[in-house]
Design a protein that fits this description.
With 103 residues, the chain is mostly beta strands. The chain has one helix at residues 5-13, and strands spanning 18-22, 26-32, 41-46, 49-56, 59-66, 71-81, 84-91.
Length: 103
């Protein structure tokens, strides 16, 4: 079996493949976690940071992502299917406008 350097790096250092994308209504984060079960994953949002922690082979790993301040944190949804953790957030639709009085 031929093993490439990226495969070795990923095996020894548990490098994860992740993607963050956005459309007009939502922000999406996908993280590949092959072989990890739902009970071994924790997803938390704090101070506009998405924290993902998981356990694999008796080792604990984590990833953190900075979220856009327009993200509605209360709208978070997460699924783990076929080794891919998908987390999505709705974007806030209203922007606050303040009238500034000129002195």
């Amino acid at each position: 079996m031929l093993v490439t350097m990226p495969d070795l790096f990923r095996y020894y250092f548990e490098e994860q493949i992740s993607h963050m994308t956005r459309d007009k209504d939502k922000v999406y984060c996908e993280l590949e976690l092959p072989g990890v079960e739902e009970k071994d994953v924790s997803v938390c949002v704090k101070d506009n940071m998405l924290h993902v922690t998981w356990t694999r082979k008796n080792r604990t790993f984590n990833e953190q992502y900075v979220l856009d301040e327009r993200v509605d944190l209360d709208s978070a949804e997460a699924t783990l299917k076929n080794g891919v953790l998908a987390v999505s957030f709705k974007l806030k639709t209203t922007t606050k406008q303040i009238e500034v009085k000129i002195n």
